[in-house]
Amino acid sequence: MSKPHNFSAGPGILPEDVLKQASDACINFDNLNLSLLEISHRSKNYEKVIDESHAIIKELFEVGDDYDVMYLGGGASLQFAMVPYNLLTDKGYAAYVNTGVWASKAIKEAKILGNTKVIASSEDKNFNYIPKGYDIPTDADYLHITSNNTIFGTQLKEFPKTNIPLVCDMSSDIFSRKVNAKDFTLIYAGAQKNMGPAGSTMVMVKKGALGKTGRKMLSMLDYQVHIKGGSMYNTPPVFPIYVTLLTLRWLKKNGGVAWIEKINQQKADLLYNEIDRNTLFVGTTAKEDRSNMNACFLTTKPELEAEFDKLWKDANISGIRGHRDVGGYRASMYNALPLESVKVLVDVMKEFEKKFA
Ligand SMILES: *Cc1c(COP(=O)(O)O)cnc(C)c1O
What we know:
Elements: E1 5-6, H1 16-27, H2 44-61, E2 67-72, H3 75-87, E3 93-98, H4 101-113, E4 115-121, E5 142-146, E6 148-149, E7 154-155, E8 166-169, E9 186-190, E10 201-206, H5 223-228, H6 238-254, H7 256-277, E11 281-283, E12 294-299, H8 305-314, E13 317-318, E14 329-332, H9 339-356
Parallel strand pairs: 1-13, 3-4, 3-5, 5-8, 8-9
Antiparallel strand pairs: 2-10, 6-7, 9-10, 11-12, 12-14
Helix pairs in contact: 1-6, 2-6, 3-4, 6-7, 7-9, 8-9
The structure holds pyridoxal-5'-phosphate (PLP).
Pyridoxal-5'-phosphate (PLP) is lined by residues 10, 75-77, 102, 146, 150, 169, 171-172, 190, 193.
């Protein structure tokens, strides 16, 4: 059987070409006849990986030397703690917008480290919309937002305008669309949704933003230590960083963020149009807040779910079962998912309607 159409929510699909190059590097990296997994991270050959990888992130975000980039372990979840640890002052407070499970987890960590205010939330409706029109404080140490809510399928279409440092968890839509990166003080993303494999997390921070908390810092949790070490204060996750680089090279070579944004829009339009047209499906979120990455939907006749499941499985589709917090289905359409796969899913939805409506 050929490779399934992979709508997995995370870790998500990677380009075929990237997987091939990654497996080659496991045996023979950079013509060394050694595996990438068995050489020093401080070798010249690996240093090139780190340097290019930092540079390509800045290039795709269109920022210059006023930002530092680092790769860390611990997933985006460690950033829920590192952000307040590095930015939240003794007397100050942090402002958070609660748009889902991941945002809630970020808030939980910040509350342990200092004063934290939730200034807006969509928890009242099981996070099926993005809060709007709330007041943004001017005196908070930072405002934390989540650009794409992977589990509930909502996405910020506009970012808050503010003069306080803006911090964003972009784990599930990084480099899926153009953003004005210069508006952010800190952006972080676990790689495994849209940028690479699990194991490495990207953090990009504006110069001058750090070192203000007055806290005595633990080395491994101090961004400044990792920046100074060039992502090599300790042994970095060498293989995930390499595969992330390959994925970013793939994106750049094909036309960068502007190129993928168009395709991502086509994929999302195709699927959401079918969800709205098809009498057997309904979307779970407010239309204006729909995520172009994760589309959540339900069958209007839950008793037919088993029939639908059979159809998409027969069509070689994988990974569209919904998250337990929402139920139904979730189709994740990350950068590497071809438009063709969405067409196959839409055809299956049409067939389902024809047979059972
Ligand atoms: C998956 C996800 C996380 C958690 O990432 P880990 O790497 O598993 O810690 C955080 N935020 C968002 C938006 C996510 O999608």
